Structure formats: C-alpha cells, structure tokens
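User: Here's a chain of 434 residues. Predict its fold as tokens.
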Amino acid sequence: MPQAYNRPWVEARVAQAIELWQRCDAPLPLPERLYSQKDQQERELACGEAVTAVEQEARKASRGRAGRLAIQDRVVDLFVRVAGPAFGLEADAIALIRDRFLPLGAEFARSARRFDRSLSMADIVQACRNAWTACGLQPMLGERMELTPSILGYSLLYPYSDNYLDCRRVSAEAKLRFSKRFRSRLRGEELSPANDREAAIWAAVALIERQYPHKSFPQVYDSLLAIHQAQEESIAQLGGNRRCGDAEILRISCAKGGTSVLANACLCRGWLEEQEELLSFEMGLLLQLGDDLQDLRNDLRLGSATLFTAAVLRGASLDSLVAQLLNLHERVATRLEFLPQGSPVLRRLLRTSWRSLILGAVAQAREFFSPGFLSELEASSPLRFAFLRDRNRRLASRKSLYSSLFEAFLETPEDSEDKTSLPVTGQLLYGILQ
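Assistant: Prediction complete.
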C-alpha cells in the first residue's frame, strides 16, 4: 500500500531534514577543484565573447519563421562551443544539456505560451525552472526524460498561485480564502472558478488529473496537498513577521522545499519508494535554501523572513550559513549515488548546477560575507565573483534584447502562429481543458 503523505508523515520528514541541516554546521567542505585567476580570466573571456555573439544574434532577430529558427541553431551552437571552457563542463554534460534540457525548456515555453498568451517571459522562465527540476528527476527514477502533462500543469501553478500568495498587496485573509478553494480543487472537488486566476489554476490541475486520476494515484494528490499546506504556513514568512524565529523559519523552509520536490518526484511516475521520498525531501530543502539565498535582497526589501534575512537583520555575517548550505549540498549530492537509476553524467550535472546556484548567489551579495570567506569560496568558482555580478547587471539592462531572443525560441517548424494556441486564461480556457 502506498505511503500516505499526511501531516504526521510530513512533520516526521521535516524533523529529519532539520536534523540533517544541523549536522551540516561545519567549516566549508573541501572543493573538488581550485581555479587560478589566470584560468578564471580565460574562461571569462570565452564566456564574454559568447554573450556578445548571442546579443548580436538577438539584434538580428527576424520576424520571419526561417530567421528565428536559424537563430535557435546558432545560439545553441554558441552554447556548445563556450560551455566547456567557460563553465568547466565535460563533453557528455554539454551534450545532455544541448540534446535534452534545452529542447525541453523550449518545448515548455511553447506549451506555456499556448496555455496562456498573457504569461510573461519572467513567468515562463520561473515555471520552466521547476519543469527542469522534475525532468531532471525522471531518469533518476527510471523514467524517460520528457515534458509530461502533469509536469507542465504543476509547473504552471507557480506563476499563478505562488505569485499571488507572495503578493504583499493581497491580505492574509484573502490569501487564505483562495487557499481553501485551491485545496478543495486539489482534492478533486468540482468548483467553478471565481476569476481568471482560478480558471488558469483549475486548468493546470486538470492537466495533472488527465495523466494521474485521483483514485489510481493517491500519492500524487497527497504530495500536492502537502505542498499546499506548506504554502499556507509559509505566509507567516511574509511581511516581516517578527514572531517568526529561526527555528520556525527553518521548519517552514523544510516543509515548503521538501514537499515541493516531493510533488515533482511523484509526478515523474505517480508513486515513490522510501529512499526516493527521502532524497526528494532533502533535495527540496537544498533548493529552497539556495533560492532564499538568491532572493536575499528582494526578501529584505519585502520584509520576508528567511534564515538569511534573519541573520542579516541581526547584523551577523552569512559565512557560517553558506558553509552549512554547501555541506548540505555535499550530503544531498552524495545521496544521489544511492539511487540505482540515472547516469553518472546526470548526477554530476545536478551536483554542478546546485553548487553554481549557491556560488552565484554569494557573488551577488558580497557585502554580507567576510573578505576571507569570499576569497576562499571564489577560488573554487570557474568564474570570478566580480564577473558574475557584471554578467547579472548586463542581463538586467538588456531585458528587451533577450526578450526578442526568447520569442525566437518559441518558434517551431510545425506550428503556425495561431493553430495550436489556446485562448487567454478565463472561463473559456477552463471549459476547453475540462
């Protein structure tokens, strides 16, 4: 009989995750490799040349289908040529990104735009990150890597539900009213959507239900209800709630992150074994804390409580917290080896991507770390932190340019402009997907 992911089960996994986090309170783990400044500068030169070439392609973006398709090929070719020297990726990892992750990302973006033409580039990129997480888990669970209806539906929930729950302009009471209706819909109840937002969310849930009927796959809906409960509790992290201490912040972060990836893993095949449940929960904590570190400045501005904002507000350095996070990264990456499925190259790629997320976040928040800590950590990065900061500023200042490139990657040889497009979110969209 499949394990029920009820509240006691989630609380027990949260307690395990907290214990794991506490065991990771140690100095920085030894890096796999150190980079000289000369080596870093050579990589940065290759990366900078590639970025310039990509931007030149974006400026030449044609309105015609053939031109946009040609741009796709040239940009992917640029990635292949620069990924190895700039980011230290091996040939098999580059091939995995080129042949699997990039096409899945493009497929997701096209599907998201057909689902709702009003979704912005930022919304789609946000949702795509979750889809990549789920698709990266599929081979680890013995499944083919592909964008399924349920992964599409679950990932599309993020721009609608998460952003609404995170919005400071919406009262806690309104969020809880919406959350109650959302919970009923996840339980399979038939509810007419009250507005366009609910219509889109109901339609995304319907995509999951098409692949996994409620009665046949109870773990799928247990996991969705578990992340829903964690989202409700995470509302306490918003708005500078000073009653939320470090222990409570950690508990909420464990629940939210753990159940999020638990749901992703369940959607890979509809059920999980015990070892897979444990890995997905711990991986969720790692990614949640990595995202919190990445969002540090925005969370400070909004008054959102995370382990990192709490430390900053106390005037503490983030050295020890990030060392703890990198130790957690090592533990979770090692846990991947216990799963019999999945290729060694995928395991290495996941390990590298998780660490890159943390290093990139540290580079953007240098004033919250000691100079010695930054120097030690930077030596283990293939790119210098100043270069990473400059790259971020450049991307932020060229949003419209990269938007043109994004639109070019939505083009496919098979699709016409309108034939496969679904209508904008609303009552009609809900009716069609039902």
